[in-house]
Amino acid sequence: MDFISHGLWGSITFGRRNRSSFGLAFAVGMAPDLFSFGVLYIAAALGVSPKPDFSHGTPPESTIPQYVHQLYNYTHSFVVFLIAFVLVWLFLRRPVWELGAWGLHVLTDVPLHSYAFFPTPVLWPISNWKFDGWQWMTPGILIPNFVLLSLLYTWYIRHLYLASKKEKKRREAVFHRSSGI
Ligand SMILES: [Zn+2]
């Protein structure tokens, strides 16, 4: 799935508490791709790594530098996510639920990547098992993804609008009562 969709899924699932929670879950949802392929694009822009060529679909994995494969193991492992989640919990003495967007990213990537290009190392480093799923770049996955996201966000924006309207009415009622109008 494209990284923006990952961000949007992360924030609607784990970031509905308030604005900063939304922003954090959005960033965390995108992070696994930004800290793997994002690094490659920055390196390519700086002329340090060759630019990956996606113009004819996914390029052969062997053309992607080894460090990207290694970063992909760390960022796309549910085991690494769980360890990080628990460590942050212990450190801050409270769970940071927005980090769940990372776990969700990994779990959604499992069925949406095939052996052809970066299957998800979901159990790494415990096991190298990977699922041979379906490529997310196909219209059969892209279109339902965008339709689902649009429906969910339409519901969410409407929900926020109705909640703020209710809050405004409540404040007005309190004001009228206290000012005796
Ligand atoms: Zn990913």
Layout of strands and helices, then pairs:
Blueprint: H1 3-14, H2 19-45, H3 66-75, H4 78-92, H5 100-109, H6 139-179
Helix pairs in contact: 1-2, 1-5, 1-6, 2-3, 2-5, 4-5
Zinc ion (ZN) is lined by residues 32-33, 76, 105, 109.
Q: Ligands bound here?
A: zinc ion
Overall 3D form: elongated
Work out the helicity level: 55-70%
* Element pattern in H and E: HHHHHH
Which percent band covers the strand fraction? Answer: under 5%
From the N-terminal CA to the C-terminal CA, the straight-line distance is: 55 Å
Average pLDDT confidence is: 94
In short:
Helix content is 64%, strand content 0%.
Structure commentary:
It is a single chain. By secondary structure, the protein is an all-alpha fold. The protein has helices at 3-14, 19-45, 66-75, 78-92, 100-109, 139-179. It has 2 domains: 3-135, no CATH class; 138-181. 64% of the residues lie in helices and 0% in strands. The model has no long low-confidence stretch (mean pLDDT 94). It binds zinc ion. Residues 32-33, 76, 105, 109 line the site of zinc ion (ZN).
